[in-house]
Structure formats: structure tokens, C-alpha cells
């Protein structure tokens, strides 16, 4: 997988989540913070709880689940960077080949 970053949850067992009125509430036990997410953000975290993924895999997943078919590569990249800043996910950058 040379040249492609892989994203994963830092602690998949550290999350509690519920859906309420098409809004998603995630409690991050490590930080003690609660996050209110839209369908796209919630879908990404649920997908990453199953296994690590490349950004291309996440785009395919979103398109297949119709969580938000109009999610662009750039918007997803921004969302993933924000999750990383919050300490929710980490990005495993590949070594150079």
C-alpha cells in the first residue's frame, strides 16, 4: 500500500454512540468529550470502527451507503483532519518506497 495513507480509530472501544432525530451523538471516553455529528461523520467513524481504511475506501463506502453521495475527496480530507486533531483517529502515513 505504498504511497497511500490509512486511517484508523485510536480506540474503537472508547466510543459510545446514539442516533437521535437523524443526528448522531458520539461520546469519546478517552477525552470525556461529546461530539455531535452529521450522517457523513457518523458513517466514517462507524466504518473505521470495523477496520482501518484509505480515503478512497471511505469515499466508496459513503457512496455505497448513500450517507452523502456528494461528499468530495477534499471535504472528506478536511473531516478526517479534524477527527485527527480531536484525537479520534490517527493516520498511518506510509513509508516512502
**Number of DSSP strands?**
6
Mean pLDDT: 83
Gross geometry: globular
Order of helices and strands: EEEEHEHHE
Uncertain runs: none
Protein name: HPr-rel-A system PqqD family peptide chaperone
InterPro entries: PqqD-rel_X
Could you write a compact summary of the structure shown?
This is HPr-rel-A system PqqD family peptide chaperone. The protein has 97 residues and is of the alpha+beta class.
Structure description:
The chain is built from three helices and six strands. The chain has 97 residues and is α+β, with helices and mostly antiparallel strands. It has one domain (6-89). Strand 3 (23-28) and strand 4 (33-37) form a beta hairpin. The longest helix is centred in the C-terminal third of the chain and has 13 residues, at 73-85. The relative contact order is 0.24.
Key descriptive features of the protein:
97 residues, alpha+beta, three-stranded antiparallel β-sheet, HPr-rel-A system PqqD family peptide chaperone, PqqD-rel_X
SSE arrangement:
Blueprint: E1 6-9, E2 15-20, E3 23-28, E4 33-37, H1 39-50, E5 53-54, H2 55-65, H3 73-85, E6 89-92
Antiparallel strand pairs: 1-5, 1-6, 2-3, 3-4
Amino acid at each position: 500500500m505504498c504511497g497511500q495513507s490509512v486511517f484508523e480509530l485510536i480506540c474503537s472501544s472508547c466510543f459510545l454512540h446514539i442516533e437521535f432525530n437523524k443526528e448522531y451523538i458520539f461520546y469519546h471516553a478517552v477525552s470525556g468529550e461529546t461530539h455531535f455529528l452529521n450522517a457523513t461523520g457518523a458513517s466514517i467513524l462507524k466504518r473505521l470502527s470495523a477496520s482501518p481504511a484509505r480515503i478512497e475506501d471511505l469515499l466508496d463506502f459513503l457512496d455505497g451507503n448513500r450517507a452523502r453521495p456528494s461528499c468530495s475527496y477534499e471535504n472528506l480530507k478536511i473531516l478526517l483532519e479534524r477527527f485527527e486533531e480531536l484525537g479520534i483517529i490517527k493516520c498511518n502515513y506510509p513509508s516512502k518506497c
